[in-house]
Amino acid sequence: MGFWNTLKGHAKAQFLDVIEWLDSSSNTLVYRYPVFNQAIQDGGKLVVREGQAAVFINEGKLSDVFGPGTYTLGTNTEAIWSFFQSIKYQLNYPYKGDIYYCSTRQNTNQKWGTANPFMMRDPEIGPVRLRAFGIYAYRITDPAQFLREVVGTDGLFTTDEINGQLKRKLVSAFTDAVASLKMPVLDLATQYMDLGEALANQMSPWFEEHYGITLTDFTIENISLPPKVEEMLDKRSQMGLVGNMNTYTQFQAANAIQDAASQPGGGGLGGAMMGAGVGLGLGNVVAGQMANMGQQPQAAPPPAPGMAPAVAPPAIYHYSGPSGQHQLPAGDIAQHVAGAPGAKHHVWQPGWAAWKSWNEVPEIAGLVPPPPPPGGTGGPPPPPPQ
Q1: How far apart are CA 301 and CA 290, in angstroms?
Q2: Average pLDDT over residues 44-64
Q3: Whole-angstrom Cα distance, residue 189 to residue 338?
Q4: Are the C-beta atoms of 138 and 212 separated by less than 8 Å?
Q5: 3-class secondary-structure state, position 232
Q6: How far apart are CA 58 and CA 129, in angstroms?
Q7: Rounded to whole angstroms, how far apart are CA atoms 52 and 189?
Q8: What b/e readout covers 315-335, taking b as 16+ CB neighbours within 10 angstroms?
C-alpha cells in the first residue's frame, strides 16, 4: 500500500479502474481512449461490448486486439505487461501506448452514385450514357489492419473520412461490371439484385486486404438513361400500344365528334365532322402505307359480284349568301343561287386562298339552271298564223 501511495504522490497519477467506451453516435468508427497522464491500475477491467473491438498500441506498435468481453488487466496481460514492469521497478508512468476502440457493427444506408454519366455500348440502341445510384453497407472486420492502413494516429475517425474513397471505388467497379455484361439497357432492371450481390462478393476481398473492412451489401436502386432518350423510348412504347393505326384514328375521330356535339348549340359539329372525315382518310392512308411498307404494290381487288361500288360523300363547301353562312354540298348551294339569282353567293374550301363566286366553281355552276330569256316567261312563243 505504501508503494502505491508513493507512486501517487510522486507522479500525481490518476488510476483507471474500468476502461470502456459508450458512444451513441452512428458515424464514429474509431475512438482513442484518453490514457495520457492516466495510469491503468493493476487488476483494472477492460470492457468491450458487442459491436466493438479494443486495440492496444504499446510503445508505437500494435500489441493486441480484444473482442467483446470483460478482461482483467495486470502483469499477465501481454498487451501492457511492460507498463506494470516499469511501475514496479522504475516508477515510470503513464502507460506508454494507446487504447483504440473500433466499431465493428454494420454501417448501413451509405449512398453511392455516378457523379457523371458513363458510356456503354448497348447491343440494341447503340452507344448510350447511363447514370446509376443506390446504397451500400460495410463493417470493420480486421481492426488491426484498419488502424494500420487507414486511421494512423487519428484519435476520432468517422465514416465521412472514408466513405468518399469507398464510393469512388464502388462506382468504378460498377461501371466495369455493367460494361462487361453487354446486356441491353432495357434488360438491366431485371438484374439489379444479382448484379449487386455479384459486385459485393467481388469487392469484399479487395476491401478486406487494403482497408480491413467487409462490404456487406451493395444495392442498385436505379439505372437511368438521359431524359431525351427516355422520351424517345416513351414514344416508341406509345406506338406499340396504338397497334392498328386505322382503328386508332377512327376512335380519335369518334371522340372529336362527341366532344363537338356536347358544345352548346352543337356549333362545332360540322367542323368536327369535316375533321373526322379528313382524319379517317389520313388514317387509312397512313395505315395502308405502314402495312405495305417494304412490300411490292398490288392491284386493288375487284368489287364482289352483285355489289355496287361505294359512293363517295358529296363535297362540303363553306357558303356565304343572303341566308348567312353555312356548310353545304354543291346541290344545296345551287338551290340558293337559283332562288336568289341577283344576290351574291360565295363559297370557300380548305386550301383556297380566298372566297370564290359560285359561278367560278364548275361543280356548283353546272347544277344551277340557266335564267329565263329577257322579256319572256320562259314559255313557248305564239303559234304561227294559219
Answers
A1: 19
A2: 87
A3: 73
A4: no
A5: helix
A6: 53
A7: 38
A8: ebbbbebeeeeeebbbebbbe
- For 70-102, what is each residue's pLDDT tens digit? 988 766 666 565 555 554 444 445 556 788 999
- Own/partner contacts of 111-116, CB < 8 Å, gap of 24 or more, are 111/135, 111/167, 112/136, 112/167, 112/170, 112/171, 112/174, 113/167, 113/171, 114/171, 114/174, 114/175, 115/171
**40/18 Cα distance (integer angstroms):** 9
Q: Are 45 and 73 spatial neighbours (Cβ–Cβ below 8 Å)?
A: yes
Torsion angles phi and psi, residue 328, rounded to 5: -135, 155
Lookup result for grid cell 377512327: 250
Query: Which one is predicted more confidently, 375 or 227?
Result: 227
What CA dihedral angle connects 281, 285, 286 and 292, to 10 degrees? 160
Instruction: Tell me how far the alpha carbon of residue 267 is from its chain's centroid.
Output: 45
pLDDT in tens, 249-289: 666 676 777 676 666 654 554 554 455 454 445 455 444 54
Please give the mean pLDDT across all residues of the chain: 77
List 158's β-bridge partners, or say none: 28
pTM value?
A: 0.56
